Amino acid sequence: MITNIPRKDAIELIGNTPLVLLQAASEAAGCEIYGKCEFANPGASVKDRAALGIIRDAEASGELTPGGTIVEGTAGNTGIGIALVANALGYKTMIVMPDNQSKEKMDTLRALGAELVLVPPTKFSDCNHFVHTSRRLADETVGAIWANQFDNTANRKVHIETTAAEIWDQLEGRVDGFTCAAGTGGTIAGVGLGLKERDENVQIALTDPHGAALYSYYAEGELKSEGTSVAEGIGQGRITGNLEGAPIDTQFRISDEEGLQWVERLLREEGMCLGLSSGINVAGAVALGKQLVANGREDARVVTILCDTGFRYLSTLYNAEWLASKGLPVFGWLER
Ligand code: PMP
């Protein structure tokens, strides 16, 4: 439960995030759209939960022992979450990432104390791909575990136990729809399963960016991608361990342009600076809300995830030159 009681340590700052009624999105949908403020976690993203869930699970199984090392192949929010949780619990962090990732990400991970291993970018089928390299390094390092966020279902379990339970409590047991995009799929599958446990009528929708294969999988049963996206952290091409059995009722495909419009409105009209996956999620929530309203549910309540802070994307999403170089619309105030 959300509480003002002092937390006993920084680990307890993870989760119990606020839920906010999104004004412009609610108006656009004709029903209530809520955002779960995952950017309010200590690592400023939804991935702090997965990091903590995976680490706690490895401790409970006895695989992770005091002073051990957590190894993961990730360039982004998961690495940041792991590094913070590992520091708080006395573990070491080793992150393997392709050397074409942004300097900010490398600097952030180094600043948090993670050991960075840079590898050349390559295809997933190549044994030197950063994910395979991270698994190998975990095998070769004494006292290390491989976090394996894509297929390790401790990831979605933490969303069943915390994110879904919090949303249910925060809306006092009346939720009609939930939607978000998938990276590992831990959030959509975990929140979906957790909400369905409480009320099987809650509509769970996958919101997919272009370039990902899940929209066509849930719509037509075939993994097939179309177009591209610059959104980070989302867009999946396979059914990960975390996505297996996810209770998806319906699906939406959202373009970067549409997601960016919501990033712009959330900042300009509501004062929240967010990343593109949040904008894409809000676009999906508006689509789901409209669908529920069209089915006679003017009182519908839809929830989505505000995944991470926009401060992580100052040189990309919030940079006029970068946006223009990608052929994307530039926020008006950046051109002044
Ligand atoms: N948005 C961002 C910015 C992320 O980093 C991630 C994590 N990959 C997601 C959304 C998707 O979360 P999940 O891995 O739980 O599907």
Automatic annotation (TrEMBL):
Transcription recorded as keyword: no
Keywords assigned: Amino-acid biosynthesis, Pyridoxal phosphate, Transferase, Transit peptide
Tryptophan synthase beta chain-like PALP domain: residues covered: 13-308
Any single GO BP term: cysteine biosynthetic process from serine
Pathway: Amino-acid biosynthesis
Source species, domain of life: Bacteria
Cofactor(s) this protein cannot do without: pyridoxal 5'-phosphate
Record Pfam families: PALP (PF00291)
UniProt-recorded Gene Ontology molecular function terms: transferase activity, transferring alkyl or aryl (other than methyl) groups
Protein name (Swiss-Prot/TrEMBL): Cysteine synthase A
Organism: Pontixanthobacter aestiaquae
Lineage of source species: Bacteria, Pseudomonadati, Pseudomonadota, Alphaproteobacteria, Sphingomonadales
